[in-house]
Amino acid sequence: xxxxxxxxxxxxxxxxxxxxxxxxxxxxxxxxxxxxxxxxxxxxxxxxxxxxxxxxxxxxxxxxxxxxxxxxxxxxxxxxxxxx
Length: 84
Hints:
This protein is α+β, with helices and mostly antiparallel strands.
C-alpha cells in the first residue's frame, strides 16, 4: 500500500489508519524510528523488543552461555568467598 502524505509545518506526519492497522501501530503506542538506506523506518517498540529477544535467544541457544548459568556461577562464587 502506497500513500502520498504531507509533512506539517511542525514536522508531524499523519499515518493513514489503514497503514497503522497493517503494521500494528496503536494510538498512543511507542514506536522506534530510524533511518536505513535513506528511508525512514517506523516499528512498534514491542515488535523491536520481540525481535531482539528472539535474536538473543538464538544466540544463547548456540552456546553454553545462559543467564541461568551466569547466575549459578555468581552464586557459587559468592558462597566460596563467604567460606574463605
